[in-house]
Amino acid sequence: MTITAALVMFAVTWFMVFFVVLQVRNTSQADAGEVVPGTPRGAPAGFVIKRKAKITTLVSVVVWAVLCGIILSGKITVRDFDWMNRMPPIDAQGQ
Predict the structure, then answer these.
(1) What global pTM score does this model have?
(2) Per-residue pLDDT tens for 21-44?
(3) CA torsion angle for 13, 73, 3, 49 (degrees, to 10)?
(4) Distance between CA atoms of 13 and 19, rounded to whole angstroms?
(5) Which of 19, 61, 62, 74 has its Cβ near the most Cβ atoms within 10 Å?
């Protein structure tokens, strides 16, 4: 795995975790009882983005490390996802 591939995988992992964390413990303005005029009732109240970004970073580092460990160990390879047998066969040298 190259450094660029590792950075791209971290960015993708970070954003996927971020979109999940955004919905955790989300309180709408209707639930809080204070709807700001001009906003929908389902808009978040007290949106704490800094704390959610920190939580996202911590969780995504763990998920990224596990993914990197799996990829670098060779337990799962690209050939494991070749369900239609389009890759050429492995030669005698294992390449």
Answers:
(1) 0.75
(2) 988 888 888 888 888 888 888 888
(3) 20
(4) 10
(5) 61
